[in-house]
Amino acid sequence: MASDFPQRVRDAADQVGPEDHEVRLALGILLAGLDPSGVEMLVEMLALGDSQDPGGALRFKAIHNLGLVGDGRATGPVVAFLNSPDEGLRVVAAGALANLPGDEARAALREALGDPSLDVRGTAAMALTLLDPPDPAAGPVLMDRSEEHTSELQSRRNLVCRLLPEKKKAP
Q1: Is 49 left (phi over 0), alpha (psi -120 to 50) or beta?
Q2: According to the model, what pLDDT value does residue 171 have?
Q3: Which of 42, 57, 96, 122 could form a disulfide with 28 if both were Cys (CB 3.0 to 4.6 A apart)?
Q4: pLDDT on residue 22
Q5: Which candidate, 2, 30, 4, 3, places its Cα nearest to that of 16?
Q6: Residue-wise over 28-37: b if at least 16 C-beta within 10 A, else e?
Q7: pLDDT per residue over 1-12, tens digit each?
């Protein structure tokens, strides 16, 4: 890779209008692992509102990539998404925090264990197991998920058995 690549990406970002969010996201992702300005671009994406990012897809991708990069400057902004009304954004934030440093991430993940969404609770619990050291607070939620999964499988098996025709006994 050319040594001037990060600068060329920064130059491209300077030429893109602030309202061209998809291009700015792509440039931020390209730059995030190479230059601090890429992380800043991704963090800026988190400030988009629903009118600028209907459905939250851009923020979802920014949060995911911030988690992949693991830069501590993203921890606070990502933690804020654990309070989002959008369940998908809460799930991706919990997952991203597994790779973001700081006590703030651990504390926020512990709090997310009480989220009303099973997916958020499960993701937060898995994230807590990935921290160094792993957080034992994840255990009860993971056990609950295991029991729910087993119960759900049993319910499905029972439904399938009821739908299958009974075998006729041989005369």
Answers
A1: beta
A2: 55
A3: 42
A4: 94
A5: 30
A6: bbbbbeebeb
A7: 568 888 888 888
